[in-house]
């Protein structure tokens, strides 16, 4: 577990000191200073299977899996130089950040790929506080699958009061008996079905051990699903998590339906946990998304000390809202995308010559999926024709319809979507998301203001699905 006792207390003292005019001026000055960082993507190794197992050969940012957690300030200009130490092209996508199109990290579409031995300087000012992450968008199935991912946390000026602020970045790995990554990324079966689901799950780069907690404390837990394809549904035995943000965007604080936290690839959920267990007790955190395959991800293990406090902390849970433009639904332009294809999909893939006969979808790197009858495969490239075009400032009412037999977390670049309805029923709690999970046959309605010009990707974040055609582009002029 990423335990940092000093962060909360240092941060709280800073906020208390900022109450005066002089301190407020100091904070404003700091926000205008340039924050410079460096990252290097290169070959490395990691102890994914535990301390007693052989090292696994991976690709890593700055030699660690996951890469360094970048904590930055909302509204403070950021410059990140990414060096490519791999033997192939790469880029870095700042997932969920509303940034200039040229900084979005899609090869060909928004930037030239970073060649081996070269670097690229990303410059943007994060407008939103919250939990985000970074990963490649070149050969993304392989590069993300070999370990290239890290958390990007944009801190609020006034965070909620908690005792600890923790991160669990979840990844899974398909390991062989000798604890090395299984070869053959992009098999036809993975491409046309559920994607490359691994057989080992890690939290912050290691097989989870007990997560040590103290009775009476309040924890903010940032959950990031950085898996290629694994859907996660977490239950916290004996605890009542409260969701305070989804995909980095604050929502109305609420408990999840049936106490189950659904986290698709690329999604983030921030929860608040009041540790109300008894000193010395143990409580399982289980993942039961896949029928018949539930397992214990980790265990909340209470120390034996007396509770930190007798009653839960009496402090508000609502996070300050980010400056998202509010959609004008009365004047919205309506667009629809339809997800098609896949094994058992039965849909026509018009963009790849119609029905595939007896061939397996996705075989030999071909298309297995389509959006509105057209397949775009790979990671992005120059000249991708937009599915639709919006004038800058227009409100778009976007309907996404899943005609397939599979789950799809649909990720939009450059924007956050206000989720309006699922299968005709209103979605409560003012949820904004950049990655919206569609179950088989789901229909989702959402809206956003097209205030960010450029060509933007919209794709499934099951990496096999994206690479095999479940990707499109829209344009804001």
TrEMBL record:
<keyword id="KW-0479">Metal-binding</keyword>
<dbReference type="Pfam" id="PF07732">
    <property type="entry name" value="Cu-oxidase_3"/>
</dbReference>
<dbReference type="Pfam" id="PF00394">
    <property type="entry name" value="Cu-oxidase"/>
</dbReference>
<dbReference type="InterPro" id="IPR002355">
    <property type="entry name" value="Cu_oxidase_Cu_BS"/>
</dbReference>
<dbReference type="InterPro" id="IPR006311">
    <property type="entry name" value="TAT_signal"/>
</dbReference>
<keyword id="KW-0560">Oxidoreductase</keyword>
<dbReference type="InterPro" id="IPR011706">
    <property type="entry name" value="Cu-oxidase_C"/>
</dbReference>
<dbReference type="InterPro" id="IPR033138">
    <property type="entry name" value="Cu_oxidase_CS"/>
</dbReference>
<dbReference type="Pfam" id="PF07731">
    <property type="entry name" value="Cu-oxidase_2"/>
</dbReference>
<dbReference type="InterPro" id="IPR011707">
    <property type="entry name" value="Cu-oxidase-like_N"/>
</dbReference>
<feature type="domain" description="Plastocyanin-like">
    <location>
        <begin position="56"/>
        <end position="157"/>
    </location>
</feature>
<protein>
    <submittedName>
        <fullName>Multicopper oxidase family protein</fullName>
    </submittedName>
</protein>
<dbReference type="InterPro" id="IPR008972">
    <property type="entry name" value="Cupredoxin"/>
</dbReference>
<dbReference type="InterPro" id="IPR001117">
    <property type="entry name" value="Cu-oxidase_2nd"/>
</dbReference>
<dbReference type="InterPro" id="IPR045087">
    <property type="entry name" value="Cu-oxidase_fam"/>
</dbReference>
<feature type="domain" description="Plastocyanin-like">
    <location>
        <begin position="166"/>
        <end position="280"/>
    </location>
</feature>
<feature type="domain" description="Plastocyanin-like">
    <location>
        <begin position="384"/>
        <end position="476"/>
    </location>
</feature>
């Amino acid at each position: 577990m990423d335990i940092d006792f000093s962060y909360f207390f240092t941060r709280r003292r800073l906020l208390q000191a900022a109450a005066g005019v002089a301190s407020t001026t100091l904070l404003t000055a700091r926000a205008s200073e340039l924050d410079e960082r460096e990252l290097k993507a290169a070959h490395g190794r990691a102890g994914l299977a535990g301390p007693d197992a052989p090292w696994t050969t991976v690709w890593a940012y700055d030699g660690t899996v996951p890469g360094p957690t970048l904590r930055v300030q909302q509204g403070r200009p950021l410059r990140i130089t990414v060096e490519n130490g791999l033997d192939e092209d790469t880029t870095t996508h700042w997932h969920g950040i509303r940034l200039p199109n040229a900084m979005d990290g899609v090869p060909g579409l928004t930037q030239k790929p970073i060649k081996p031995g070269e670097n690229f300087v990303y410059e943007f000012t994060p407008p939103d506080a919250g939990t985000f992450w970074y990963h490649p968008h070149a050969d993304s199935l392989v590069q993300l699958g070999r370990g290239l991912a890290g958390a990007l946390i944009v801190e609020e000026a006034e965070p909620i009061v908690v005792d600890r602020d923790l991160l669990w970045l979840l990844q899974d790995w398909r390991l062989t008996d000798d604890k090395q990554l299984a070869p053959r990324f992009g098999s036809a079966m993975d491409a046309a079905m559920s994607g490359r689901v691994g057989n080992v799950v890690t939290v912050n780069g290691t097989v989870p051990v007990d997560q040590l907690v103290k009775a009476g404390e309040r924890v903010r837990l940032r959950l990031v699903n950085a898996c290629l394809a694994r859907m996660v549904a977490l239950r916290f035995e004996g605890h009542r998590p409260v969701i305070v943000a989804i995909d980095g965007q604050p929502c109305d604080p609420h408990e999840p339906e049936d106490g189950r936290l659904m986290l698709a690839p690329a999604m983030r959920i921030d929860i608040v946990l009041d540790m109300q267990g008894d000193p010395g007790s143990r409580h399982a955190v289980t993942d039961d998304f896949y029928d018949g395959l539930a397992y214990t991800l980790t265990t909340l293990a209470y120390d034996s000390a007396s509770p930190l406090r007798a009653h839960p902390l009496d402090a508000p849970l609502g996070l300050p809202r980010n400056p998202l433009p509010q959609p004008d639904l009365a004047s919205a332009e309506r667009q629809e995308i339809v997800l098609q294809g896949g094994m058992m999909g039965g849909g026509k893939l018009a963009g790849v010559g119609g029905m595939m006969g007896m061939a397996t979808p996705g075989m030999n790197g071909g298309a297995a999926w389509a959006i509105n009858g057209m397949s775009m495969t790979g990671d992005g490239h120059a000249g991708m024709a937009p599915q639709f075009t919006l004038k800058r400032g227009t409100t778009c009412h976007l309907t996404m319809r899943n005609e397939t037999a599979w789950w799809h977390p649909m990720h939009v670049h450059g924007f956050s979507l206000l989720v309006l309805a699922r299968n005709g029923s209103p979605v409560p709690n003012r949820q904004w998301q950049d990655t919206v999970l569609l179950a088989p046959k789901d229909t989702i309605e959402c809206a956003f203001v097209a205030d960010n010009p450029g060509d933007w990707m919209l794709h499934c974040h099951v990496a096999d699905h994206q690479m095999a055609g479940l990707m499109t582009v829209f344009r804001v002029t």
